[in-house]
Amino acid sequence: MTWKLVKLGDVCHLQNGFAFKSKLFKDKGLPILRISNIQNEHIDTRRPVYFNATDYNVDLKKYEVKTGDLLIAMSGATTGKIGFNESPTTFYLNQRVGKLVPGKDLDKKYLYYLLSTKVEENLKISKGAAQPNLSSEQIKNIEISLPSIQEQQRIVSKLEAAFSEIDKAIELT
Questions:
Q1: Taking Cα atoms as reference points, which of 19, 27, 35 lies closest to residue 51?
Q2: Among candidates 8, 9, 12, 17, which has minimal Cα distance to 97?
Q3: Residue 20 and residue 32: Cα distance in Å, rounded?
Q4: What is the pTM of this model?
Q5: Pick from 46, 48, 50, 47: nearest CA to 25
Q6: Contact predicate 4/146, CB 8 Å
Q7: Residue 135: pLDDT above 70?
Q8: What is the tens place of the pLDDT at every residue in 78-123?
């Protein structure tokens, strides 16, 4: 079994967010997913802000965040943290939030588990005096170990089984 060391940008597309103007936020409309929504390896959708598509003369389709999309915080206190959108709602990606779109040789859940082990490492490479920032290039240059897609899926299966057992043990205590 051969594992390759590759740069994330070679096997995964990183979609940066759109610079929605906070002065145009609304109480209703289309929901925006912001950095503050990435919490505890999940997307917290309880406090959304909204926008009206007619306020922007841009095709915002590429900024859509759908169920199952994997996101990474690129600035602030949650820099480097990742999470899945588990909501059925389609959100729109705000600036400084990245959407990770794996290529055919990279399993999304494998990427999630791999990057969840690199949060501290990502914080060390983040730049910024007042608040940490990860650039798109820094994310694309993260080196990852890449086994075959079948091996990635086997690893994910084992991890999920182990986490399920841990959850059961926690419930029992």
A1: 27
A2: 17
A3: 8
A4: 0.86
A5: 50
A6: yes
A7: yes
A8: 788 899 999 999 999 999 999 999 999 999 999 999 998 876 665 5
Nearest residue to 89 via CA among 68, 66, 109 = 66
Can you say whether the dihedral through the CA atoms of 107, 108, 110, 111 is positive or negative?
Answer: positive
> Chain-wide mean pLDDT for the chain?
89
How many Å apart are CA 8 and CA 169, to the nearest integer?
A: 35
Among candidate residues 6, 124, 103, 108, the one with its CA nearest the CA of residue 67: 108
Contact 66, 33 (CB under 8 A): no
Helix ranges restricted to H, the chain: 8-11, 108-116, 119-125, 136-140, 149-172
